[in-house]
Amino acid sequence: MNILITRKYPEAGLQLLKDTGYTITEYTERRNLTQEELIEACQTQDALISVGGNKLDETFFNACGHLKLVALMSVGYNNVDMKAATRAGIPVSNTPDVLSDATSDVAFLLMLAVSRKAIYMHQTIIDGKWDFYDPNENLGIELYNKTLGIFGLGKIGFELAKKCKATYNMQVIYHNRNHNDKAEQELEAKYVSFDELLQQSDVLSVHANLSSATKDIFNKEAFNRMKPTSIFINTARGQEHNEQDLIQALQQKIIWGAGLDVTNPEPMAKDNPLLFMPNVCVLPHIGSATTETRNAMAAMAAQNVIAGLQGKQLPNIVNK
Ligand code: DGY
């Protein structure tokens, strides 16, 4: 059996694959394969481990008749046309749960960094501007007893809510397609409408999957409904907020601050105005970037491949 991996692969996953005796091809150049290259490479492959968001569309699935399965090393699957995969008879798996702690840590980190302008304050020292103590300067916002709003309360949102409640006694409100009974019971989270979420959140954190329903949902109209003291956090997908509208909302002080681990496009241009705003912190999509989590994700994707190539159902199949 032949397995293609689109990046240099974390050791825990690689070892599991090596132990099977299958032939592994790791693409180790620091660039994304083009679709033509990926299609060509997949002609002889039985399994593809997609790392880094390759676009897998109808053209790809129709052109890769030999492929038996695709394992994504990510929880998000917005780059995959699942209907086309299903039509082509190719199961696709993702890596849920194992990155919830690490990603919710980054949402928490952004919330705290923005609330105290930490990144900007660090830069003021580099710029030689730490020259005076004025009790009215450099002021942040405290998080104690504030309201955390979660858009898309799944596993990652739950972990963030748990940390915010335990650390800052934050009240949790959320908006989802469905009620989250566990969050309501364990965290006293309250289900609210999208409009109430916008109006009541002191910190609004995005955790929903990217879909046609969530694309651009945080736009001018949404920011206009938020509190002038509120902080917007996005660790899900950059296409869920409209960047120009976010820049304007911050410049016009319609909202107070923003923390982003995801941007649109990625990578963000180094002259993007968001990078120079005091109340903004932007990170380069590092939600799951810890040694432990990346190894756990790689192992989970490998286990899906191994199960699939043994003719079993992929444990984390998305297109059932
Ligand atoms: C995920 O797993 O979806 C992360 O955002 C990395 O792409």
What are the salient characteristics of this protein?
2 domains, 7-stranded parallel sheet, 12 helices, Rossmann fold, 5-stranded parallel sheet, binds (2R)-2,3-dihydroxypropanoic acid, alpha/beta
Task: Describe what this molecule looks like in 3D.
Keywords: Oxidoreductase. One of its GO terms (molecular function) is NAD binding. With 320 residues, the protein is an alpha/beta fold. The chain folds into two domains: 2-97 and 291-309, Rossmann fold; 100-282, 3-Layer(aba) Sandwich (Rossmann fold). Helix content is 37%, strand content 14%. It has helices at residues 11-20, 35-42, 58-63, 82-87, 100-115, 118-126, 155-168, 181-187, 194-200, 220-225, 243-251, 291-309; strands at 2-5, 23-26, 47-50, 69-72, 92-93, 147-151, 171-175, 190-191, 203-206, 231-234, 257-260, 280-282. The strands form two sheets. The protein has a seven-stranded parallel beta sheet with strand order 8-7-6-9-10-11-12, sandwiched between helices. Strands 2-1-3-4-5 form a five-stranded parallel beta sheet. The relative contact order is 0.15. (2R)-2,3-dihydroxypropanoic acid (DGY) binds at residues 74-76, 99, 287-288.
Summarize the structure.
By secondary structure, the protein is of the alpha/beta class. The chain is built from 12 helices and 12 strands.
